[in-house]
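Notes, Module 5: Reading structure tokens.

Key idea: the token line is not a picture. It is a compressed description, and you learn to read it the same way you learned to read a sequence, by spotting repeated patterns. We will look at two proteins. The first is printed below with its tokens.
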Amino acid sequence: DDEGATWPGTVNVTGIGDGDGSAYGLTGHGTAAAIVEIPGTGGQEFLSPIWSYDGSNTKGYARCLKSTDGGMTWAVLPTPIVPYSASYDTSEHHIAIVRRPSGAIRLLCAIVKLNGAATIETCYSDDLGVSWSSMVTALTNATASPAIIQLVDDSVVMLYRNLVDSEHAWMARSTDGGATFPTTQRQVV
């Protein structure tokens, strides 16, 4: 609250259960993405996706954390972004706010899936993380945490690293609020 001059103590988020019923905190067992502020909440409501592993670091799922007190405390939203899986290995999560033409807010979540050839998987929530669409493969042969940017024409651009083009930066464009990124809408940056 003072432009980075002082920082309060860390907040330990616990109670994220895995498919076996065990609970693990984030330390050593999960990765978190950037935190986004829900527009219109005066800096009091935030969301962040996390990937939580079980104790073996081989099984896990993506959940969404929410704070309603400016980030002092966090709760795990009940519906997972990615349901529990025994072999779903992901990293480099990203969540972005996308404004729909109607004025509604969409949360777009992108996750790099590392099983086999790297892909970027996406899903979205139109109710601030209460429910999520099914995870779909948005980009193949793609890696690195994608940047998601909404343009003034309401299209959504995802910047990523293309593995079959010497890992050059590419962009993919969506005209349906990030639900799909057609192959015809991709180009090298």
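Here is the second protein, with the sequence above and the tokens below, as before.
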Amino acid sequence: MNNYDKIMFVSGDVYTVIISMMQKGWLGIKESSINRIIYLASVLFSFMFDDERNPFQEHYNFSITLSGPEDPTISAALTHLQSNEVVNIGDNGYFIANFNYKENFTGYSYYELKRKWIDDISYIIGLYGEGKIYDFVFRDPQYQNGVKTNTLVPLNLQKDNATVKFLNSFKEDFEKQVSINQKLTNRKYLELYFEYVFGKILRGDL
């Protein structure tokens, strides 16, 4: 894949994050938050859909920074979106979507799948709050291992990564305690799951 196509793939995700969060009441979003949300969406995809190929792993190479997971292609995508007036940046450094823009990312593979998934993740962030979700991101075992070892190796987005293994370690207990059925949407499953996770954090179990 050439660099332009990669930027376009990522631009679709970035635009989706900005639109989704603004529709849920945010007035704008920082670049670091965009990185964190896409990283979280990437890791949770492997957790939720262990029998499917993760569409994020083809386009992202997150590394560890002081502000959180970061992929330089996201910065390039924001520059691309700004130059085409798809998004604007306010005086406070927050990115704002141009709602008059007619999206043209639909021709890229996995776009619709990722759009729906990112919107589910945005819903969870809007429901439980930015602080709680980011607390979970920084508890991410894979991320913490990287911080401790000061590694520059890209964070693993595949289903064998430490975070997915960590989440799966108490998934069975969660599903025993909560009524899980085939009619449960992905969004509702995540809502109940994070309610369970945050309950364990508050009790000091995590």
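Summary for the second protein:
- The mean pLDDT is 84.
- The chain is about 60% helix and 5% strand.
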